[in-house]
Amino acid sequence: MWSSFHLPRSAMIDWLSNILPNLLLAIFVYTISCTTATAQSISVRPVSAEEFVDAVGDGRNVGLAVLGGQVSGYSPYRHQSVSHLNDGIIGEASNHFNESAGWHIPTTSLPQDVQFSFERGETFEISGFSIVTSDWYHASEIEVYMATNNGGQKWEKAEGLIKPKKSKSEQFFLFSTPIKTSALNLRLLKSGRPDYVMLSEVKIFGLPLGAATTQQVNLALPAFGGSIIEPVSGQSFASALVDGRIDTQFRSLPGQESATFTFGFRDYSVARISKLILLAGSGSSASVPRLFKVEISKNFSPLDEFEPKLLNRIPWSNGAAELSFPEPIEARYLRLTLFPQHGAPNFSIAEVQLVESQAEGYTSVASLNRNSDFGENLRSSANPERESQSDDDVDAARVLQPTDVLEGEIWPETDIDHVRFAPPGAGRGLVFNYEDLSGNKVDVQLLKADGKIRSLTGLSNVEVGVDDVARITSAANVYSVLLIDESGSMRGTQSQVHNAVNQYIDNRRSNEITAIYRFGLDVKKVADFQKNGEPLKAANGHDFAYSGGTALYQAVSKAQEVLANKNGAKVIVLLSDGANWVASNNDNQRNAPTSVHLRQLQKVWRNIGNGSPRIYVIGLGEGLDTYANKSGLASTAWQALQMFSAATGGLALRTPDATSLDTVYTKISSELRAASRYRLALSTKPNGPGRLVLSSPGYGDFDLEDHTVELIYDASGSMKESAGRQTKIVAARNVLRDVIGELPSEVNVGLRTFGHRIRETRPGDCEDIELIQPHGPLNRAQLIEQINSIKPLGTTPIYNAIRAAADDLKDQRGRKSIVLVTDGIEECLEPPTRLGAELKNLMLEEGLDLHLNIVGFALKDERTRSTLRDAATSTGGRFYDAEDSAALQQAILESFKVASFEVFDETGTLVASGKVGDDGVELQKGQYSVRIRTPLGFKEYRGISIQPATLRRLPVDLRPAVVSQP
């Protein structure tokens, strides 16, 4: 009977997977029980975050996996590995278990041990630890054990129990004295729920003893507070770059010329970075990127100007590339741009590492003891000393001297400042400028000597007289939108939110016009814009649901839209306790496609880039610290919201609970009621001649005497086709002979051709490219003879020909250009539409500064025209569409841009001459006409006004015309 019984293999595996871990656990618990002794001198107690930071100081989370920490324990569920407990990411801890939510087990498995050890099994001095449990399933009683020798064979138990609270907050525990240990064991005894017990993250803070840690700190990792700030489109999401895994990759979109990632650091501190490491990963059909560009910024806003640092080829070796900076760089934000390989439709990359560099006086971003009061501190430290004098009376107006810069502040509603202008020397004029340092909160008017009033708001470089007066006041109106989170997680805060918003409404300025919107599953208008506070307060809180998801991105973009057409100062005040969890209206799926969230977030950032109102953020509770991987960003919800305020000049404030909401709202209303800052500048309008510069868009700023030009001549088989009464090749030969005859003798020209030796589809047809005439002084007879000898035969390798020509030109002095004459589309690059992107990357890679002008002759379709036009403009060149021989001659001559000009005054007297694209000519104040001489005839521009000491740029069109009036 027994011989006929057998257990199926799958059942055996299930039995082992369930029984074996519990058996090992029982052995481990028994071992600890037999070897532990209570350490009466060591106890552990709960403390506040402030007390914990003071005690731990510069200690870092040494239990982190990326710093060599390890964790072991029972993991009964798929995607619920105990390794989530030391990955540095606080997941969404709630009744919805998911991959980022940490680790949970059934209460039937209690007691349960989770053991943490450190890098290489070394002994560390541990001051304390923190735990993030859950506001749903939380571990309510835990014992703490410490290993007293390497390997953990002997354990000591800390005195008493720790009893974490039901909370999403990080809870801190200090030892009575720092302990030296190689491992820490947490024994979970009880749960706050009858069914499950849960932990989201455990952080163990200390310092290494003996040998220093060998682990490099990768500041891009969320474990150290790194984040990718702006959403990036791709076939996969940017968060894959900083998840610590090489099996997940970011893949760019097909045809995407580049992908740019902006990194911010913990608490948006200025980080010190020594090198950039890229990991390729494996398993992707896309190739690795070929070039990288690094830019950095220390500015408050992630959208402000970035400073270029590096542009180089990526030195891949065995799937990795390490790029050390010549000197460590300091940056609040780092922008990384990656470019694909030649001919590759896209690229993939697994990880980006930004390695921290230590220095004396620099506090590591990995340290717990960082200043996190980000917005207010940056703003106060950025404020310079400013003029405090206020002049409400015109007669007592301050006097602004030429070349002076004066900063002042204007208080709302009642304050008025007046400024007069000091007379300039030598009869010069005055130019006035102002800058609103508070974001559309200041109005400036010019009181003219004749009694007229002129608004200067939004203007610059305004000419003023010494009898004029500038009057500075607050903006006439302030439009504000209050966005209030009514999602389910806000339940229980109704009363505090209602009272705080009402208090904000009461504290508004008399010129503030307010609307209220609420958002949960969708976004709804509560009250339209109005000054009267009573209707606003009556609508506040009415029919608020306090249930469902959080349509946060939709709410912000809605507020941006309704404020877009308002005139005056514009403000959004956003209250939320979490991340965006709704993908579309009436969609309460927390696992909605990330791509939908990405598009919503991109819309918010587009609006920010186009001049969004200032965004003030009020963050409620600790749920904002959870890792919010929706939208493909690698950041916490709070980091994402901070960036909205930083990029718009607003402020981000937090409160741990709703009881303090009224205080936070008061801070924001006080800021809006505070003085607005402005900066005034006065300069003299200099005397002396002006300068006239002629430029032709698409032709560049140079002339042929300082230039080397390579002519690429298409000799592919299609040139045998008819073009009117003759074949294309015959028409092209005749035209080129005429063009060469008209070129000036000083021009430096080379000639290259393709497709003339190997028949299409034969081996080597895409390499059939030859330099017929090397660069040198123009020899018309020789060049015409060579052109006559070329016979059309093969294919059209445009990219390869241009690349060869670029190689010819790279060692030439001065500036360079290429003129390509072709009748077809690229046939050796797939897809042909990649031509422009590949040429742009080629210019970047080789560091070339050249222009490509393309003359398309008798092209067959719009797709070909579009591809060639894109290829020309990718290098700053120009595309010419020539349908017949006459147009071909015109286009080729234009592409060589041989053009000189003469300047005539109002009497018709010749006063100056020059060449299109050169440094221009000096002219006294007056009216002039310009006559341009080209190989195709003359062009004339009339009524050109020149002002003293000013530069006048005149864009000209070199195509034939008789007279043009600017």
Detailed description of the structure:
This protein is of the alpha+beta class and 966 residues long. It is built from 15 helices and 52 strands. The protein has a ten-stranded mixed sheet. The chain has a six-stranded mixed sheet with strand order 33-32-31-34-35-36, sandwiched between helices. Helix 7 (594-609) links the parallel strand 34 and strand 35 (614-620). It is globular and about 100 Å long. The termini are far apart. Mean pLDDT is 80; it is low at 1-21, 32-40, 93-99, 370-389, 585-591, 698-704 and 959-966.
List the helices and strands and how they pair.
Elements: H1 9-35, E1 37-47, H2 49-56, E2 60-61, E3 70-72, E4 103-106, E5 112-117, E6 124-132, E7 139-147, E8 155-159, E9 170-181, E10 183-191, E11 196-199, E12 201-208, E13 227-228, E14 250-251, E15 259-264, E16 271-279, E17 291-297, E18 307-313, E19 320-331, E20 333-339, E21 348-349, E22 351-356, H3 374-382, E23 398-400, E24 405-410, E25 417-421, E26 429-436, E27 442-447, E28 453-455, E29 462-464, E30 469-474, E31 478-485, H4 494-506, E32 512-519, E33 523-530, H5 533-539, H6 552-563, E34 569-576, H7 594-609, E35 614-620, H8 637-648, E36 651-655, H9 661-673, E37 676-685, E38 690-695, E39 707-714, E40 722-723, E41 726-727, H10 728-742, E42 748-754, E43 769-777, H11 780-789, H12 798-809, E44 815-822, H13 835-846, E45 850-857, H14 862-873, E46 879-882, H15 885-896, E47 900-904, E48 910-915, E49 921-923, E50 926-934, E51 937-946, E52 951-955
Parallel strand pairs: 1-8, 23-25, 31-32, 31-34, 34-35, 35-36, 38-52, 39-42, 39-44, 44-45, 45-46
Antiparallel strand pairs: 1-9, 2-12, 3-5, 4-11, 5-10, 6-9, 6-12, 7-8, 7-10, 13-15, 14-21, 15-20, 16-19, 16-22, 17-18, 17-20, 24-37, 25-30, 26-29, 26-37, 27-28, 27-30, 32-33, 38-49, 40-41, 42-43, 47-48, 47-50, 50-51
Helix pairs in contact: 4-9, 6-7, 10-11, 10-15, 12-13, 13-14
